[in-house]
Each structure stands twice: as C-alpha cells, then as structure tokens.
Design brief:
Number of strands: 0
Number of domains: 1
Helix content: over 70%
Mean pLDDT: 84
Radius of gyration: 18 Å
Order of helices and strands: H
C-alpha cells in the first residue's frame, strides 16, 4: 500500500476510502436491521 518513501499514492488512498465506506455502511445497515427487529418483537 505504501510507496518506497512511505507516502500513500492517490490510487491507493481512493481504494482505502472506498473499502472503509463499504464497511461503515454495512455496519450501519446491520444496526438498522437490529433496531427494526427489536421494534417488531415489541409489537408482537
């Protein structure tokens, strides 16, 4: 990921940001589903 002098290239930085975003939104999705599950259990 790092170049010889320890600086991340723009290309690698973009890839890193994209993968971090995917993980972040995936976690949010799971959280949202859990909240909905809890609500539906309470209503039942």
């Amino acid at each position: 990921m790092y170049t010889n002098n320890g600086i991340i290239s723009d290309e690698d930085r973009k890839k890193l940001l994209i993968s971090l975003n995917k993980v972040f939104f995936h976690a949010l999705d799971i959280r949202r589903k859990r909240k909905q599950d809890k609500l539906s259990i309470k209503e039942a």
